[in-house]
Amino acid sequence: MDLTLIRHSRSTTNAQNLISGAGFDAPLSPDGVAYARAVSEVFDEQKFDAVFASPLQRALETAEILTKGKWEIATDPRVEEMHFGQWESQDPDPLRLQYPDAFDYMGMLNKNFSQYAHEAESYDDLVHRVADFVADLKQDYPDKKKCW
Predict the structure, then answer these.
(1) pTM of the complete model
(2) CB contact at 8 A, 29 and 17
(3) Which residues in the chain come in under a pLDDT of 70?
(4) Which of 81, 83, 88, 121 is flagged as catalytic?
């Protein structure tokens, strides 16, 4: 099976440069909607046999735009973004100063962040839930060639 992964378009929290994961269900920003619509013009949704999305509105809205409303989109919380716990919707700049070892050289969160962000999901937990989804996908859709 071929599996294509597509990240949601730009959300309102992305536009504000805030930490944004599964704990905050931000919608697409106007720029994000416009970008997804532009991409949908050159995106061939007919090349796929099944479509899955996170139940978060930004992911579901992106999938609906890219499929041009022609597909039933199955949602599954196992493909949600990472849960950032108490760091959800926070400005990362003060956190970078306070917890420098929680960020990589590009300023992105690394695996250490979950030591400081209470109720956050670890990278290992993320990998396990997504791997569980992929295993079920292989079992439940063995005849499907391309899924996203």
Answers:
(1) 0.87
(2) no
(3) 144-148
(4) 81
Are 115 and 50 in contact by the 8 Å Cβ rule? The answer is no
The vertex-5 CA angle with 82 and 21, nearest 5°, equals: 20
pLDDT, residue 11, reads 95
Structure tokens at 37: 């619509």
| Distance, CA of 83 to chain centre | 10
Catalytic residue among 8, 80, 83, 121: 8
Catalytic annotation on 81? yes
- What's the alpha-carbon Rg for the chain, to the nearest Å? 17
Tell me the per-residue pLDDT of 69-79, one tens digit each, with 9 for 90 and over: 888 999 999 99
Sign of the torsion formed by the C-alpha atoms of 51, 55, 59 and 65: positive
Q: Residue 3 phi/psi, 5° resolution?
A: -125, 120
